[in-house]
Specification:
50% helix, five-stranded mixed β-sheet, Nonspecific Lipid-transfer Protein, Chain A, Four Helix Bundle (Hemerythrin (Met), subunit A), metal ion binding, Maleyloyr_isom, alpha+beta, two-stranded antiparallel sheet, DinB/YfiT-like
Length: 245
């Protein structure tokens, strides 16, 4: 997926979040996002985009506290959020292929465009689920979001960031995410961590359904019964309990 598509998706889902958030009380709790008030979630999103842009331009800086973010008055959120997304897009475009800092070692600046796109997509879903607005995500973006999250989980650094991620190690247990189109993601829990491939095949548990639903189940925004589960449902539940994005 090229940078133009990533940037288009970031703009789309930033705007979608802003539109959904405008329909709710800014102090209402968001059940799918550690019950933060909507105001904090909006602040986190704009803060994260600006933080990522600063990393691309200037190098690493401490992870900001979402509780410190100030999105301003609700009527200004849309403009403020769009400005943050545009700032990140501009920073990545200016950086080109220059390696920049990431949690996982130096990578091209597009790492942050992709990471923020998928984080924003899930938070757009949070706001839409909260307010009852329709949420859609293009199949190509949903598929890339699943792949990107698996790349994060498979990196050895990830287990050191959160004890829950270390519990994803296993002895060969397998999970398969099977979309309506394409082979899907075959995940293996090994003693050294998570491994995954893009293929068909059998697994200890298979989750099947539209790729958009698989993404939202995989990030615990929709319940497991939203997709078809075949095999060891307890294995799927164990995985999901430790991997919410």
């Amino acid at each position: 997926m090229d940078n133009a598509r990533l940037a288009e998706g970031l703009r789309e889902h930033t705007a979608g979040f802003a539109e959904a958030a405008a329909a709710a009380d800014p102090d209402v709790r968001v059940p799918t996002c550690p019950e933060w008030p909507l105001r904090v979630l909006a602040g986190h999103l704009g803060q994260a985009h600006r933080w990522a842009a600063s990393i691309v331009r200037e190098g690493p800086s401490p992870v900001p506290d979402p509780l410190d973010a100030d999105p301003g008055a609700p009527g200004t959120w849309s403009g403020w959020l769009r400005e943050g997304a545009a700032d990140l897009e501009a920073a990545v475009q200016a950086a080109g292929d220059t390696p920049v800092w990431t949690f996982f070692g130096p990578q091209p600046a597009r790492f942050w465009l992709r990471r923020m796109l998928h984080d924003t997509t899930i938070h757009h879903a949070d706001a839409a689920l909260l307010t009852g607005r329709a949420f859609t995500v293009a199949p190509d973006l949903a598929a890339d979001a699943i792949s990107e999250w698996l790349e994060v989980l498979a990196d050895p650094v990830t287990a050191s960031l959160n004890p829950d991620f270390a519990e994803l190690r296993g002895t060969g247990q397998t999970l398969h995410l099977r979309p309506d189109a394409g082979p899907g993601w075959l995940i293996t829990r090994t003693p050294d961590g998570v491994r995954w491939t893009w293929e068909t095949g059998t697994a200890d548990v298979t989750l099947a359904g539209p790729v958009e639903d698989l993404l939202l189940v995989f990030t615990r925004r929709l319940p497991l019964d939203r997709v078809t589960v075949t095999g060891d449902e307890a294995l799927a539940a164990h995985w999901l309990a430790r991997t919410a994005a």
